[in-house]
Design the sequence.
């Protein structure tokens, strides 16, 4: 039996008593929109461009408290006419990816998006206007002139429109957090706060400025090795992304998440719990960027621990 048939059969006969219910997500869009790059970014922290998908890629992974089966469907015309309806109709969540630089095909993308909505009238919809890292990317207003969300609004259907970059990660993880929350049946899944175990400040060339571990000495000792791993991953990431002024990423390290934001010459990163919302962590770091940049104009002494304790007391570990 093929992998595809096994997955479909497994989905049809899944154990309803399972603590972690699998959710299926269909990711669609025209060819070249960046669907597979987005999957690589979310699943593997892969920062490289990928080859076009001819057919279907299937990925199974865990994000926060959910286990996902992701169908990455090719966007070439024959595939849109044959595969899309089959997989979109049964999906728990729908993601449509638009190449925001490909204005010539906006009308085609709009038509296919509307077709997909007709295949499935219940799944929450995440619409990603991709490639905002490129200078010729369309603005939100340009996209919204072509893509009509009016029908979704009238039907009170859950949807989210976001601009993002699959390559640099900008705004991608916040968008994915939204979809995760919409699909999750776990009422205890954190939505507003995170547990920060510590963090880092780097210069964009990989020079370390500060590493801070939070909590009591026993807790700091417990996670010392994890922070060393995080240090190596940050330096590796910065080498790969050296040509980009802005970037965001999320990596799994042991049973924790390392969240990183790069803004010009300054790079901030914090380690949070495995089920914590990346969107909250990224917002914290964006706010800290402003404070640290202002402080570093006159003084580069260590400051991350103090800023976290003063501004985010509900988000840091105490034990």
Sequence:
């Amino acid at each position: 039996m093929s992998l595809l048939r096994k997955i479909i059969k497994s989905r049809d006969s899944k154990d309803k008593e399972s603590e972690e219910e699998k959710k299926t997500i269909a990711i669609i869009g025209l060819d070249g929109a960046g669907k597979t790059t987005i999957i690589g970014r979310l699943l593997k922290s892969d920062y490289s461009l990928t080859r076009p998908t001819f057919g279907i890629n299937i990925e199974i992974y865990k994000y926060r408290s959910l286990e996902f089966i992701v169908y990455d469907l090719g966007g070439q015309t024959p595939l849109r006419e044959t595969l899309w309806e089959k997989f979109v109709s049964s999906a728990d969540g729908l993601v449509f990816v638009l190449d925001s630089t490909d204005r010539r095909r906006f009308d085609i993308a709009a038509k296919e998006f509307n077709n997909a909505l007709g295949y499935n009238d219940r799944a929450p919809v995440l619409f990603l206007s991709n490639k905002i890292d490129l200078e010729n990317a369309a603005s939100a207003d340009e996209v919204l002139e072509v893509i009509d969300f009016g029908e979704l609004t009238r039907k009170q259907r859950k949807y989210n429109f976001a601009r993002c970059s699959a390559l640099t990660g900008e705004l991608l993880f916040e968008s994915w957090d939204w979809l995760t929350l919409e699909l999750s049946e776990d009422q205890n899944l954190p939505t507003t706060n995170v547990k920060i175990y510590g963090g880092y400040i780097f210069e964009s060339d990989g020079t370390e400025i500060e590493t801070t571990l939070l909590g009591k000495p026993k807790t700091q000792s417990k996670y010392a090795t994890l922070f060393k791993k995080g240090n190596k991953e940050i330096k590796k990431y910065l080498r790969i992304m050296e040509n980009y002024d802005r970037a965001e990423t999320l990596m799994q390290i042991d049973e924790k998440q390392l969240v990183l934001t790069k803004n010009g010459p300054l790079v901030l990163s914090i380690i949070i719990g495995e089920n914590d919302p990346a969107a909250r962590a990224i917002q914290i770091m964006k706010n800290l960027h402003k404070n640290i940049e202002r402080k570093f104009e006159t003084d580069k002494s260590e400051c991350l621990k103090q800023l976290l304790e003063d501004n985010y007391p509900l988000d840091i570990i105490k034990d």
Q: What stands out?
A: The chain has two domains: 11-183, 196-311. The first strand starts at residue 22 and ends at 28.
